Amino acid sequence: MDRDLTRRLHRDYITVYRISELITNGIFLVVIIAYFTCAIIWDWTLIPGWIALSLFIVSLVLFTWIIPQLKYSRFQYELFDEELEIQSGVIFLSNVLVPMVRVQHVELESGPLMRKYDLASVSIVTAATTHRINGLKLGEAQQLKRQIGVLAKVDDQDE
Prior knowledge:
Blueprint lengths: L11 H31 L4 H28 L1 E4 L3 E6 L5 E6 L3 E7 L2 H5 L2 E8 L3 E8 H14 L8
Helix pairs in contact: 1-2
């Protein structure tokens, strides 16, 4: 019997993902500028700098604009009484069933950017791996954590 219908991430997750990638690409750009500066001062070849700048442009477009939208549109999850189904992927799609009897504990996480947008991640830990649902509104993430905890018969040690 279903607990919830198929759910998706919150739309603000795209913004958080893009800001995170802009920060990463900004650091990459600083390194490229530093190389160009050193190359001009010490008369090094500029070819590595131009290659890095090309990679920067590709990375900026791909990871800041295309990938976040694809990840958002392809990620979904559904909670049942006996299992959690998670579908994700950009190029290779993955569909995972996590049996509730295998769940060891459930964690709620939220970094500075996620907190600014009132988002959180739910991590479902089994003996084999950790399954993560990023980009849920904080209230929804807390409710999902509690529901999984109840269905998996896991004690909530945080509260």
